[in-house]
Design a protein that fits this description.
By secondary structure, the chain is of the alpha/beta class. The protein has 2 domains: 85 residues; 289 residues, TIM Barrel (Alpha-Beta Barrel), CATH 3.20.20.140. The chain is 49% helix and 9% strand. It contains 18 helices and 9 strands. A 6-stranded parallel sheet has the order 4-5-6-7-8-9. The chain has a 3-stranded parallel sheet with strand order 1-2-3. Strand 7, helix 14 and strand 8 form a beta-alpha-beta unit. Helix 17 packs across helix 18. The chain starts with a helix and ends in a 5-residue tail after the last helix. The model has no long low-confidence stretch (mean pLDDT 95).
């Protein structure tokens, strides 16, 4: 059977799978229902960043999301940039979603108003069930949304690692975001608060903690204590974030020590550690290889390396090859570049055990509709890679579907200890 026919057969079969969505930022449904929704919701969360790269001014970017401005006027501002963006993977996910969920083939001057009306009509209780469960066949989506009170089994929370997004001033340390009622007078007080936080979020249903792959230094309690005391006494007002290329002279020993301890606390609670790597802002600071010393120090921890480390994809594959405590997550990757995602999957089959791959995570928030389009792209990529292997006689179609089922269901279920 030729490759295209095998690919279609695989896509049809994979589309019947129930799946685990391995990364979102979707919050409780109430947030979506209270949001102002129109056609430009499809162009928030990722496409909006490409608008800047396409040349749209900051003022015009703000204007297109200003719901007090007439929709047609906003579309006039947006239309030239849409023509520049429509061939990206980000845009493909939006187009697939609007076709499936609202029945429109394209975004344009004629459809922008009826699409908005259809979206507003559909923005009612049960929208998560209709999109995630009915359209996508998602059993649960792992989400980082700032709360464990997600309100539905369709969402499974991950919590933020203590000291990742705050903690560089005494004000932030003395009232830590993860436990603002804690009394913090010493480094041990801060560690105790971090431990209580991890135990609490685990009890509230969180199955992991999310961190970022910054250039962490070797954890040193003495250096961490010195930084803590310098902030407590006012000798220093803040600790600067490490910046490229002078990491070591701008390191944050307090952050590095607390995060290292928190990884140990989470491991004691049998929680996975999700790690944002690669693409975002000055992505040089997010190189997945920054994680290697941590991977060595915490052999019993389970690390879920997000986004395949894009653009360091091959290096990230080698983390999966070289460390038994690493899993490789294609969340976001399919909509960064489908070509890259398929090449990476193909190479991963040669490199790593098949229990190490997680096939899909939409990585969206308010525009929940786009999860559908991204999932279609993920199925395309998985089927394309496996179909070539079947066509070349390396595996049977049944074996290919067995791999796909591992990537979409078995592996995330095992990694995150999900009861689904």
């Amino acid at each position: 059977m030729e490759h295209s026919k095998i690919q279609k057969s695989l896509i049809d079969a994979i589309s019947e799978f129930e799946i685990i969505d391995c990364h979102e930022h979707i919050g409780p449904e109430k947030r979506r229902l209270e949001a102002e929704i129109d056609v430009f919701t499809f162009f928030s969360h990722y496409i909006s960043y490409d608008l800047r790269q396409a040349g749209m001014s900051e003022a015009d970017q703000q204007a297109i999301f200003n719901r007090s401005m007439p929709l047609k006027r906003r579309w006039t501002l947006f239309a030239p940039y849409w023509e520049r963006l429509r061939w990206t993977s980000y845009a493909k996910a939006a187009l697939l979603s609007v076709r499936k969920l609202y029945g429109f083939d394209d975004f344009n001057e004629k459809t922008c108003e009826p699409i908005s009306q259809a979206m507003q009509k559909a923005n009612t209780p049960g929208i998560y069930e209709r999109v995630l469960r009915d359209a996508c066949r998602i059993r649960t989506a792992l989400t980082v949304c700032g709360t464990t009170d997600v309100g539905t089994p369709l969402l499974t929370p991950l919590a933020t690692m203590p000291m990742v997004h705050f903690g560089d001033t005494w004000e932030a340390l003395s009232r830590p975001e993860f436990d603002p009622t804690a009394t913090i007078r010493s480094l041990d007080d801060l560690l105790d608060a971090a431990r209580r936080y991890i135990v609490r979020v685990k009890s509230e249903g969180a199955v992991g903690l999310k961190m970022v792959a910054s250039p962490y230094m070797e954890p040193n309690r003495e250096a961490a204590t010195a930084v803590f005391e310098s902030l407590r006494t006012g000798a220093e007002s803040c600790i600067p974030e490490p910046k490229w290329p002078d990491f070591k002279s701008r390191s944050n020993p307090l952050r590095d020590y607390v995060i290292d301890q928190a990884i140990s606390f989470a491991t004691e609670q049998d929680m996975a550690i999700a790690v944002h790597t690669g693409y975002w802002g000055d992505f040089r600071t997010l190189d997945p290889l920054h994680m290697i010393p941590i991977l060595f120090r915490h052999p019993k921890a389970r690390f879920d390396i997000y986004h395949l480390g894009y653009p360091w994809v091959r290096e990230t594959l080698m983390l999966g090859k070289g460390f038994p405590n690493v899993w490789l997550n294609l969340c976001w990757t399919h909509i960064i570049s489908q070509r890259c995602a398929t090449a990476a999957l193909d190479e991963a089959i040669d490199l790593v055990p098949m229990n190490k791959l997680l096939a899909f995570g939409g990585d969206y928030g308010i525009p929940v509709e786009k999860v559908y389009g991204h999932l279609v792209m993920a199925r395309e990529d998985v089927a394309a890679v496996l179909a070539r292997r079947v066509a070349e006689g390396q595996m049977t179609e049944s074996q290919a579907l067995g791999l796909a089922r591992k990537w979409f269901w078995d592996n995330p279920k095992e990694l995150y200890r999900l009861q689904v």
